[in-house]
Automatic annotation (TrEMBL):
UniProt keyword Transferase, yes or no: no
Superkingdom to which the source organism belongs: Bacteria
Organism: Novosphingobium capsulatum
Domain EngB-type G: 44-221
The name this protein goes by in its record: Probable GTP-binding protein EngB
Keywords: Cell cycle, Cell division, GTP-binding, Magnesium, Metal-binding, Nucleotide-binding, Septation
């Protein structure tokens, strides 16, 4: 009886994950914060952006992906990230990670919310080196109205994005399966969304290696 090993795509993904692991274990450095588009770095490298509601676990996921404890600031105060924060990956630099301002912060003044919204919208529409956006959604809550609004913004900007469920360790497996199925159903109705949903836990390391590989694949370097 013959035993079949991983298929060609499986082997490719395994190699990609290993390359991503090695790459992220090397140089990953904060570059700059940009409160306005005029402060963005020159579009010299591919960019992978991260967005999500405040307190979705964006900073924790960035830290987990890069194997750092404090690359991105974590805070219990929603809306702390008010700028586009840039991080460079590789020696020499191969691509950049962009931590976008969180959304859905109820306590922020409307004027401030609109400024952040304008910054994000203009960045999405005008950044030619933006290869992919990761839209983070809390597994415990699923896609909310504010997430749907962000998905529509990404669709309108024609920016391809992956939906990434965070904090998957915080709910029961049966509940998680329902959330994944529902999220995939919603994602497949959006023209710019990747049809498959990533499931992660920064605390437990669930899905981190696969997502790391996906980021490297999307950056196409």
């Amino acid at each position: 009886m013959s035993v079949t090993g991983p298929d060609e795509e499986g082997l490719r993904l395994m190699a990609l994950e290993e390359r991503a692991r090695a790459l992220f274990s090397g140089r990953v450095e904060f570059l700059k914060s940009a409160p306005e588009l005029k402060f963005l770095p020159e579009p010299d490298f591919p960019e992978i952006a991260f967005c999500g509601r405040s307190n979705v676990g964006k900073s924790s996921l960035l830290n987990a992906l890069t194997g750092r404890k404090s690359l991105a600031r974590t805070s219990v105060t929603p809306g702390r990230t008010q700028e586009l924060n840039y991080f460079e990956v590789g020696t020499p630099t191969l691509f950049r990670l962009v931590d976008m301002p969180g959304y859905g912060f109820a306590k922020a003044p409307p004027k401030v919310v609109e400024q952040w919204r304008r910054l994000v919208r203009d960045y999405l529409r005008g950044r030619v080196v933006l290869k992919r956006t990761l839209l983070l959604v809390d597994s415990r809550h699923g896609i909310k109205t504010v997430d749907t609004e962000m998905m529509q913004m990404l669709d309108e900007a024609a920016v391809g994005y992956r939906v990434v469920l965070t904090k998957a360790d915080k709910i029961k497996a049966s509940e998680l399966a329902d959330v994944v199925a529902e999220t995939q159903t919603i994602a497949r109705k959006h023209i710019a969304a990747h049809p498959e949903v990533s499931v992660t836990s920064s605390e437990k390391g669930l899905g981190i290696a696969a997502l790391r590989g996906a980021v490297l694949d999307d950056a196409a370097v």
